[in-house]
Amino acid sequence: MSSPQNYLQTILVTGANGQLGSELRKLSGEFQSYNFLFTTKEELPIENKEAIKSFFKKQKIHYCINCAAYTAVDKAETEKEKAFLINADAGGFLAAACNDHNTRLVHISTDYVYNGNSTIPLKETDPVSPLNVYGLSKLKGEELVLNYCPSSFIIRTSWVYSEYGNNFVKTMLRLFKEKESINVVNDQYGCPTYAADLAKVIMHCIARMKNGAEYSGIVNYSNEGVTTWYDFALAIKHFVKSDCKIFPVDTSQYKTLAKRPQYSVLDTSKIKEVAKIEIPFWKESLHECLKILMG
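Predicted structure:
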């Protein structure tokens, strides 16, 4: 008879201090049947192939959720090598280790792998053609992950925010306090993703894997609905009752180093079908997050 410690399956979460990693840590208390290992880039530098090999040799990892990423979209344009090292090469190193040790890998990707030219929600099978270095590095990461560990489960997500880290929602809350008026882009379409919702879906899928469900390949996940950054900002303003004026501007008026997709609404029908889930509407989830942030 195995001891309770041997019975617990171990979940490794990389990028533990990021938005998704932090939400998974918060959620982990609800999953007592797993042993969680949360690692930061200092504790497990995933761009170090030998460090990963050593880590996987020392303990049995049943599941790995790779939340680690280089997410500075504009900075990536001038730090291409670093972006590819973390978003692409490191994903390949992790996937190879997972494949060698029979570990199920859940890898997080992005809507930026698409080119933004669509006018209808994007399916997993739609053509990919990233517009910037960040998107290119994440697409290469997907390719390496599936190459080294074909059983990997890749989740493309978009416009992620949470109570943790740096994100659009927290930036808006800060600007509302600092400024009388702000300009926000009104011609980029997508759907916000509350990292807490994504964390719940990942754990739901892992629980189903434990019971024999097979998940592999690429799926899209975001909250339900379609919005623009401008309408997203308005929704935040209305909830917190800010007096800050918000003016809509075209992308052409808001210069950034990296080009952004004009349309990155994700079709989430596949994950709803394979994982048997319902996905909350984006405004509902935004209100949940703002209630936490506003105390």
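Summary: The chain has one domain: 4-163+193-222+263-279.
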